[in-house]
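User: My notes are a mess, but here's the protein and flavin-adenine dinucleotide's SMILES. Can you give me a structure?
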Amino acid sequence: MRFPVSIVGAGTAGLITARRLGELGFSPRVYDQKRVLGVPVRASGILSLSGIARLGINYSGCETNRLHGAKIYAGKSVLKVKSKAAIAVVLDRKRLNDACYDQAKAAGAEVITEKRLAGHSLEGMAGRGVLVGADGAVSSVARHFGFGEISRFAVTYKAEYEVEAAESGMVELFFDNRNYPGLFGWTCPNRKDLLEVGVGLYSGNGNARAAFDKLIKTEQIASVIGNRRPVNHGASIIPMRMRKSIVDERRRIMLVGDAAGQVKATTGGGIIFGGSAALMAAEAIARNADSGAPLSNYESEFRGAYGLDLDMHYMINKVYSSMGTKSMEKVVSVMKTLGLDRFLSAYGDMDRPSLILKRFFLRGLAR
Ligand SMILES: Cc1cc2nc3c(=O)[nH]c(=O)nc-3n(C[C@H](O)[C@H](O)[C@H](O)COP(=O)(O)OP(=O)(O)OC[C@H]3O[C@@H](n4cnc5c(N)ncnc54)[C@H](O)[C@@H]3O)c2cc1C
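Assistant: No problem, the inputs look usable. Here's the predicted complex:
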């Protein structure tokens, strides 16, 4: 039996859920408040190659660069982690959303734009089949149906600059808890001639725009962008912690993506975890239709597969956000002494710190 599924939000998480449901024989309906999906672009598109491969997105037309690693600045210390092979892609976010849309439509989903759902219109949908909240960090679905709060957010500001040549293949991360408390400043060569510069900090700990203005004055960045004007710029928010509960079995409501808080607290990356959750949610809905298996299997399966990694990202973030500049410099120098920069260059995994730890111990045991 296939029942109606309504999805609120046509970002990557909602569209991946819709695509997978279509492949499983459903005819899902996706609603989005926007007229043109995927704009304005306020986020970056850095995704691990291993992660994006799992999502089944046809992203070949979205790729703008490949990344080999990161240069990390902490006070006067610099740590370079660089692998021979590319570990991540940079994707054009509008084109990525379009690719997810095309695949969802091809699988049989209906996408309805300029339709904001809140309050009574959500009530009407819950109870008929399944309602999926994929409506981003400030989820109306979560709020309306009383899912717990997301306990921490970051605020961000980013811009792109047309430059002669951005350092190709490496992101730069600037850790400084006085100026960017809780997260960091970054640059990313979105294309070889387009440099993204951004900053994120814990919400309630200052103004992202003011922090951004400080960041672009640092020597490393000022020397590349000079006094060029940004071509795209704007603010956004990132959830830093998963909600305590993401399924309401009785009312048949599920949350995926930023609405659920499925984001890495170290970097703010959410597409891989949100997309993986979207696939799991769709599979759980299909099993519910086939055999009556509980929808909450989605939550336990997601937490079983990725909960430890999300918790580790959160713990790492908590530790570095409590450090002063001198302590960060010390940590970087200890990491270098231990050869951790080389280890991360060879075995680092952007998404799954639990795998890094496992490889670290296995290497130790093998010695
Ligand atoms: C500055 C910044 C940089 C980032 N960089 C990366 C990165 O490099 N890599 C990465 O993986 N992630 C990154 N992220 C995170 C990533 O952008 C998000 O995790 C991802 O976009 C979440 O997708 P989503 O579909 O859950 O939500 P969204 O993309 O927010 O989509 C939600 C959709 O729901 C719609 N909507 C909301 N409310 C309603 C309503 N009531 N009714 C109808 N429609 C509604 C919205 O219009 C929107 O289209 C970054 C985020 C920021 C802010």
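The longest helix spans residues 297-321.
User: Great, I'll file this with my notes.
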